[in-house]
Design brief:
The structure holds 2 protein chains of 2 kinds.
Chain A: H1 9-17, H2 21-45, E1 50-52, H3 53-65, H4 72-100, E2 119-121, H5 122-138, H6 140-152, H7 156-163, H8 167-188
Antiparallel strand pairs in A: 1-2
Chain B: H1 6-18, H2 22-32, H3 34-45, H4 47-57, E1 85-86, E2 89-98, E3 101-108, E4 113-121, H5 128-141, E5 152-157, E6 161-167, E7 171-173, H6 174-179, H7 184-203, E8 216-219, E9 224-226, H8 231-235, H9 238-242, H10 268-271, H11 278-294, H12 304-312, H13 324-333, H14 344-391, H15 399-421, H16 430-449, H17 454-471, H18 474-488, H19 494-510, H20 514-525, H21 532-548, H22 552-565, H23 567-572, H24 574-590, H25 594-612, H26 617-633, H27 636-654, H28 659-674, H29 678-696, H30 701-717, H31 720-738, H32 743-759, H33 762-780, H34 785-800, H35 804-817, H36 823-836
Helix pairs in contact in B: 1-2, 1-3, 2-3, 7-11, 7-14, 11-13, 13-14, 14-15, 14-16, 14-27, 15-17, 16-17, 17-18, 17-19, 18-19, 19-20, 19-21, 20-21, 21-22, 21-24, 22-24, 24-25, 25-26, 26-27, 26-28, 27-28, 28-29, 28-30, 29-30, 30-31, 31-32, 32-33, 32-34, 33-34, 34-35, 34-36, 35-36
Classes of the chains: A mainly alpha, B alpha+beta.
């Protein structure tokens, strides 16, 4: 019997943690729809070039957790998942944008070069996504780390904790991956 | 050229990264496998570019590092005002923007000056009250003039937006400046400036509410300025302040301030959405200081909700600073209890004293070393000289030389006494230890060199005894003085014997043995050939002893008699006369004749200032006494003025941890409490208590007195819970130090019973009150005022619980045990009377 009441993410996360794969799927669709709404409204609200992914994830987290405290491990799980979802959403948005822009050739990037920060530039997303798929072919863990870091803004220690490896390993993986991805992007250009 | 396989590249990269010398590893690899080596070289060379790329693409870390809370929207302002004119303001350049509006550089054409203009849009539908509040605050802010506050010139209300015209600051935010790696001294200077700005605002009852590194600018002249006082509340509703999706602009923008929001520097009460007081800003300042001096964010990185949660319970990250005083200050600022945080004034003072400290420490150390050496040599020289005089025939030495030598020995002795007894401006806390070392040394020398010279030994024993008295070590003082008196038995050396007897009398009075002390004055009188000077000295000490016992009227009589008897001597010795007048002022003070005391003491201060200078330790002591008289007279304003100056003076010359400084803190905080300045009193005591605990130990008398004062201040503030904590601490330490029956222990226990009674914890209160009453009855007797206090309290506790019969019988036994003129007996009668009605 399915239930129409919106499931509680605390329980979903706990169930997922305990190995329940349907819980993971439920969780995915829940977070996905939430993030999608937020991302769209953010995109409409602000300039179309950039989106603050961490803010969105935080917002989604707040809404879904409804003020409940999640245990640390569950929270990390949530963010790892959200990173993955965020990547999908951003790729979708970027594709839409490309479709709207005739030909998708002209770069609309008007951000100041000095303007560094937590936003993800949609123009870069498609490129990153494709080389990230390549990285996935070689090394799943490295790709996961990039996803968690770039799309969910997770810290080294958080990633180490969720992957069950040392921080040093995460660090080494990230160092390698960023260089590798960047090199691949340049080779493609 | 063929690219190496993914696996090969990964392997060499890992080896390269893990190598203790990566450059050597690469060189070696190029030798072994040129292709792979070159591939690795290319691969690692692009690291910086890759970093830049990913920094631009992704958020990297949530709230972890520098860019974490600056989560920018690229704002293409829909209402770009550049080149437009708003009244007399010509908008020149966009300085920055956030979700709530933009900040422009503009020219005020009327006054021909550059200003910063903050345009606040109304698109978020700010409530009407919020706008009115903003207008009121802006008016208040425009009166805030301070070198470290960004000046607000005017406020213009528009249809679609409000405009705030501010001082244009040519500089960078504190966040940006920190990246340039400023020195600790620089950081301390900025901290003091920020705190001073808060002090002024708090005085005007303006709370900043959003203090953070982006709201603090460092001008191109290196001066800190705080932006946006009170604006947080006006611009955002409280909910908005807590909300997560606040559009912000990157931190390279300046003077954007409150247009960005972060919970990173919020106080716990703010994160909980409670009403805020000025103490909330102090917490934020504490977090900023932690960030400034550690370079690390004060909270564990995590999502906003988590951050808010950490903030709400004050769960910030632990940190360690080399500068322990600074660490303590930050700990106090970030106390979860707002009431326990220091005020902006106190904080500014603390930081300023930190700025002073390193230099003073060095000077102190240098002088301690030289003083020790001087003392040591002086003692040895004196010993050698005396030895010479004794061992050679007097005839062989010219009479003048002998006299000179003797004179020098006496001078040295007097010098030593002076140095060791007076509050020593250079000693810092080291003084006791250094002096004790000298005394131990002298002791060893004594037994070796003077085994067969009892008179010299006696003289030195007496000096050492007097020195220990000066150090407050009464047991040692008594031991040495007795040794001197024993050595002198059967010898004719009245001067030394007289001195030894008088020191012994003073020591005994400090130990509470007043009768034994008084006997010694009779002994002095009965010395054969006692001189007038000796008798005058004796009268002087006698007065001291009387006053120590609280017998001020007898002391006043003794002084009057002595000044008459020794009028001739006093006329020719103004210093001795001043000493007698000082005693007189004390006696009058003890008798409650404050005006008389004040007149004499003011004169003494004036004389001392002319004679010794206003910073001489003796002048300072006289001023402290003057303040005590004023304070007890109820002239708090003048008392506080003097005491505040004195504190600064002691802190600068002696350091914060010198016993004299701490003693003064007790006096000052006492006056503050009586003057109703409870927060200041409490903050001062908290600060000094920590210093005293670290320096002198948790159980040192000065620490315990301070703790007692703190509990009293907290009680007066109505903070029963904090006062309870302090009193419990006090009771357990008093019990450790004095045992359960000492009057200090009993006083603390009585206080605790009272506080628990006020808190409604009747069971525990009753147990303590009963216990205190029973012990006091045994130790002091049933009719002692202190016993009656506890007796009465016990009855009140019972009454409050509705146990009327038990309470009544207690009151009746209290009335029966005392006499009708005792105030507790009267209170008990009154209570019985009203309750019966």
């Amino acid at each position: 019997m399915s239930c129409m009441v919106q499931p509680d993410i605390t329980h979903l996360l706990a169930a997922w943690q305990a190995g329940d794969s349907t819980a993971r799927d439920q969780m995915f669709s829940l977070v996905h729809s939430e993030l999608k709404i937020l991302a769209r409204s953010a995109k409409n609200r602000s300039s179309p070039q950039s989106i603050q992914v961490t803010e969105l994830i935080n917002e989604a987290y707040l809404r879904l957790a409804e003020g409940k405290e999640l245990v640390f491990q569950n929270r990390l799980q949530f963010f790892a998942l959200a990173g993955q979802i965020m990547r999908h959403i951003l790729v979708d948005l970027a594709r839409q944008k490309q479709a709207i822009k005739r030909g998708g050739q002209e770069s609309l990037r008007t951000l100041d070069e000095n303007d560094s920060g937590g936003s993800v530039l949609l123009d870069d997303i498609l490129g990153v996504d494709s080389v990230l798929q390549e990285l996935e072919q070689h090394d799943v863990r490295k790709a996961k780390i990039v996803e968690m870091k770039v799309f969910a803004g997770m810290t080294m220690s958080e990633m180490a904790s969720i992957l069950g490896v040392t921080e040093k390993t995460v660090q080494r993986d990230w160092h390698f991956s960023k260089n590798w991805l960047f090199q691949r992007l340049r080779q493609k250009d | 050229m063929v690219d190496p396989s993914f696996e090969a590249l990964e392997r060499v990269f890992s080896e390269y990264e893990d190598s203790p010398d990566p450059a050597a590893y690469l060189a070696d690899l190029l030798q072994r496998d040129a292709d792979l080596g070159r591939a690795l070289e290319r691969f690692v060379m692009q690291e910086t570019e890759a970093d830049l790329f990913f920094e631009r693409v992704g958020p990297m870390e949530r709230f972890g590092g520098e860019r974490t809370h600056a989560l920018p929207f690229h704002v293409q302002s829909p209402q770009n005002l550049i080149g437009k004119t708003l009244g007399h303001l010509n908008m020149v350049e966009l300085l920055g923007a956030g979700g709530m509006g933009e900040v422009y550089r503009a020219i005020d054409q009327k006054l021909e000056r550059t200003v910063a203009v903050k345009v606040i849009h109304d698109k978020h539908g700010r409530a009407r009250e919020s706008r009115i509040r903003f207008r009121n605050e802006a008016r208040l802010l425009s009166q805030l003039e301070h070198p470290h506050v960004c000046r607000v010139y005017e406020f213009v209300e528009g249809e679609e937006f409000d405009v705030l015209v501010m001082e244009f600051i040519d500089g960078r935010t504190l966040r940006q400046m920190l990246k340039t790696g400023p020195s600790e001294r620089r950081l301390l200077e900025w901290s003091a400036q920020i705190s001073a700005a808060l002090d002024l605002a708090h005085e005007r009852r303006i709370i900043h509410r959003d203090l953070k590194p982006d709201n603090i600018m460092i001008t191109s002249d290196g001066v800190a300025k705080v932006l946006d006082f009170g604006l947080a509340r006006s611009v955002y509703s409280d909910d908005e302040l807590l909300s997560t999706s606040k559009p912000t602009k990157d931190d390279h923008l300046t003077q954007v301030g409150s247009l960005m929001g972060t919970p990173m520097y919020m106080s716990p009460e703010q994160a909980r959405g409670e009403e805020l007081h000025t103490s909330s800003d102090m917490y934020s300042l504490g977090l900023i200081l932690q960030w400034m001096f550690t370079g690390e964010s004060p909270y564990r990185s995590g999502p906003v909700a988590d951050l808010l949660q950490q903030a709400a319970i004050g769960e910030k990250l632990p940190f360690t600073l080399k500068n322990k005083n600074l660490q303590r200050l930050i700990d106090r600022l970030t106390n979860i209890d707002p009431e326990l945080r220091p005020t902006a004034w106190d904080t500014t003072e603390s930081i300023r004293s930190l700025l002073e400290m390193p230099r003073r420490r060095k000077i102190q150390y240098f002088l301690i070393v030289s003083l020790t050496v001087v003392s040591l040599f002086a003692i040895i020289a004196m010993i050698e000289r005396q030895k010479a005089i004794e061992s050679r025939s007097l005839a062989l030495i010219a009479e003048s030389e002998a006299l000179e030598a003797q004179g020098r020995a006496v001078a040295i002795k007097e010098f030593l006494k002076e140095v060791l007894k007076a509050p020593d401006p250079w000693g810092g806390g080291q003084r006791d230890i250094q002096v004790r070392e000298v005394l131990e040394f002298a002791n060893r020398e004594l037994s070796e060199r003077f085994a067969d010279q009892p008179l010299n030994r006696a003289e030195i024993c007496q000096t050492i005894g007097a020195t220990y008295f000066g150090l407050g070590d009464y047991d040692k003082a008594l031991q040495w003085t007795d040794q001197a008196i024993d050595l002198l038995a059967g010898h004719l050396s009245e001067d030394t014997l007289c001195d030894a007897l008088l020191v012994k009398a003073e020591v005994l009075s400090r130990l509470g043995e007043f009768n034994a002390a008084m006997d010694l004055f009779d002994q002095v009188e009965m010395l054969p050939d006692v001189t007038r000077i000796q008798r005058m000295k004796s009268a002087n000490v006698q007065t001291n002893v009387l006053m120590y016992e609280g017998r001020y009227d007898e002391a006043a009589d003794t002084i009057l008699n002595a000044r008459r008897t020794f009028a001739d001597e006093l006329n020719s010795d103004p210093q001795a006369d001043a000493d007698w007048r000082a005693l007189q002022a004390s006696a009058f003070w003890g008798l409650g004749r404050f005006d008389d005391a004040l007149e004499i003491q003011s004169q003494l201060v004036a004389e001392s200032e002319t004679l010794l200078g206003s910073n001489h330790p003796k002048t300072l002591t006289k001023m402290a006494n003057l303040a005590t008289i004023l304070s007890d007279k109820g002239d708090y304003e003048r008392a506080l003025e003097i005491e505040s100056d004195l504190l600064t003076n002691y802190t600068t010359t002696l350091g914060t941890d010198h016993e004299t400084t701490l003693n003064h803190v007790i006096n000052y905080s006492y006056t503050l409490r009586h003057a109703g300045k409870l927060n200041q009193s409490e903050a001062l005591l908290l600060q000094s208590l920590e210093i005293a605990e670290t320096k002198y130990g948790e159980n040192a008398p000065i620490t315990l007195t301070m703790l007692e004062q703190l509990a009293a201040t907290q009680l007066q503030k109505g903070h029963l819970k904090t006062s309870r904590v302090s009193t419990e601490k006090l009771l357990s330490r008093r019990t450790q130090v004095h045992g359960t029956e000492h009057r200090f222990t009993l006083a603390a226990k009585h206080k605790l019973a009272f506080i628990l009674f006020q808190l409604g914890d009747f069971g525990e209160a009753e147990r303590l009150a009963q216990d205190t009453f029973q012990t006091k009855t045994r130790v002091l007797g049933p009719d002692h005022e202190n016993t009656q206090n506890s007796h009465l309290l016990w009855a009140r506790i019972l009454w409050q619980q509705g146990r009327v019969q038990e309470a009544k019988s207690l009151l009746e036994s209290l009335i029966a045990s005392g006499s009708p003129d005792q105030k507790n007996v009267q209170a008990a009668q009154e209570m019985l009377h009203t309750k019966q009605k």
